[in-house]
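Project outcomes to date are best conveyed with an example. Our students and postdoctoral researchers have been running inverse folding experiments weekly, and each run begins with a structure described purely in tokens. The record below, which covers 254 residues, was selected by the lab manager from last quarter's runs and is presented without edits.
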């Protein structure tokens, strides 16, 4: 039996990077996967790659009505929801002195409001499905330690960390059988990290500086995160809730 056979998963930000890698791995391990993103063409292509196991729904995670639609379409198509991967995210590289209030709000709208809405509507859909559900929130090591260059990203990801624990405790107290955990990657090779390296205008130098902070000496690959998502999605992690999975090559162990 495959590791998530028969489970229905919704992944946000599934058009590329960690979301697409997670969608592919979950489908390989037997799940039906609803691939969502606001980048519609790319996310639709990922869903099509998965054949019968994939289904595309447009979802901007900041819009509550789109969450309601995504959950309704998921239940209509696959009949249930077992796993939600709140993966969509963005960052703006500006320090506290240069960031505008609108930029601050935008980062929090996507990274924190989006996860709040996901947890809220995810729990409702999982309860309708009578599922032993798993909510997996992609935070960051920037949600554990502060980062001078991007305070809004760090603040929003720190919020995701404690929101996840609060959701976990609520669901446990209610006896829903729904778990909620956060995942904290360090630097992983995706478009987001490429943009971060390019932001200072000296990509090679920046990459070398980023690598210096990683004791294991290399960036992560998207499948390093997808493997953690797969574990949390599966019943293998049935004792885990309110916990943090850190995947950073030792960066925050120092
Ligand atoms: N790559 C890393 O090193 C790294 C490290 C730590 C945490 N993360 C987190 O992992 C997650 C995935 O990042 P990634 O590296 O794959 O980046 P990415 O930029 O490749 O993917 C992010 C996806 O989120 C989508 N998105 C952005 N705003 C959205 C919105 N409002 N509604 C719906 N979708 C939206 C984008 O379209 C994109 O497809 C993010 O939450 C990110 O913060 C990434």
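After processing, the design step wrote out the following sequence:
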């Amino acid at each position: 039996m495959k590791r998530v056979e028969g489970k229905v998963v919704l992944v946000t930000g599934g058009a590329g990077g960690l979301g697409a890698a997670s969608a592919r791995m979950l489908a390989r391990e037997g799940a039906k996967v609803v691939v969502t993103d606001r980048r519609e063409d790319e996310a639709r292509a990922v869903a099509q790659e998965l054949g019968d196991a994939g289904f595309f729904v447009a979802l901007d995670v900041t819009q509550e009505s789109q969450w309601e639609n995504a959950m309704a379409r998921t239940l209509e198509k696959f009949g249930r929801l077992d796993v939600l991967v709140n993966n969509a995210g963005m960052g703006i590289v500006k320090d506290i002195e240069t960031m505008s209030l609108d930029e601050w709000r935008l980062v929090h709208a996507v990274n924190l409001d989006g996860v709040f809405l996901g947890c809220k509507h995810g729990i409702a859909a999982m309860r309708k499905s009578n599922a032993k559900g798993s909510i997996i929130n992609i935070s960051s090591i920037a949600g554990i330690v502060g980062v001078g260059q991007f305070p809004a990203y760090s603040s929003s990801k720190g919020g995701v960390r404690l929101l996840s624990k609060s959701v976990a405790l609520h669901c446990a107290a209610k006896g829903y059988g729904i778990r909620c955990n956060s995942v904290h990657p360090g630097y992983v090779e995706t478009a987001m990290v490429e943009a971060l390296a390019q932001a200072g205008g000296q990509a090679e130098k920046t990459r070398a500086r980023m690598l210096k902070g990683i004791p294991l000496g290399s960036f992560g690959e998207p499948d390093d995160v997808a493997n953690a998502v797969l574990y949390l999605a599966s019943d293998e992690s049935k004792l885990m809730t309110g916990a943090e999975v850190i995947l950073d090559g030792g960066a925050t162990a120092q």
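Residues 12-13, 15-19, 37-39, 59-62, 87-90, 110, 138, 140, 185, 187-188, 190-193 surround nicotinamide-adenine-dinucleotide (CB under 6 Å). The mean pLDDT is 97. The training component of this project remains on track.
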